[in-house]
Known about the structure:
The protein is an alpha/beta fold and 285 residues long. The chain is 29% helix and 16% strand.
Amino acid sequence: MNTNKTIHVVSSTDDNYVPHLGVMFVSLLENTQQHRKVQLYVLNGGITEKNKQWLQKTVAPYQTSIQFLDVDPKQYENAIESRHITKASYYRISIPDLISDSDIEKVLYIDSDTVVLDDVSKIYDQDISPNIAAAVIDCGLHDRLQTLKVSEDANYFNAGIMLIDLKSWRDNNITDRAFDYIKNATDEQLEYHDQDILNTLLCDKWLELHPKWNAQAYLLLKQKKLEFIDEIKKQEAFSKPAIVHFCGEEKPWLKGYVHPYKKTYYHYLEKTASGLEQGASAKNI
């Protein structure tokens, strides 16, 4: 294993989530080994040129830059939006088409509403074959595959953090199958958007990661017993999360939101560049 290889990290955002993406990138770059090169990509859900420049300015001190990937929105015209989820969430389905360089074997996808607290090379360097992806069980929806009538015993993963084997994804034609799913699915089958799609298509083709790599609110706020997660791993994730995921409608930048890592979010926000365009600001609390 060549641990000097570039780590390829992808996220997705529209203009409103730009400051939060900046937080995620800074926290990731601050906690990744200094000798590892990191290449960043953003699935562009509609970002102004000024805010693109702000993101580039934010990551420039870490000797890296961002490639913005433009998605064809027509491909997602039938995708259902609801709650706080926009069509930009679905765009991760297109990652293996948009990053077509055959030398790039895998990418780490991380949602913008996260804070990274550990070195992501620890999961990026894992060999996940013969699986297509690696992810963490969804703490709130782990049994959703039964509702979707996909499996009675398999677990459902949270798609907010995924390590993706690009070749395996392409070989299994996941993107085209996902578009077919969108066209033919009922509203119930898309209640959790692209996450439902990916769990259906990758049901028996994903590797389970330690829950600390996607420490969700259900775990960190002890909102459920989570008996389906190993007790030791659960305690490790609670006491020392590697990636904190502010999943759900409540976010650390919203007034009144209580979360043990809210101050951590603001710590990294202060390290982002100044001059964020009006209308896409996290400092409006």
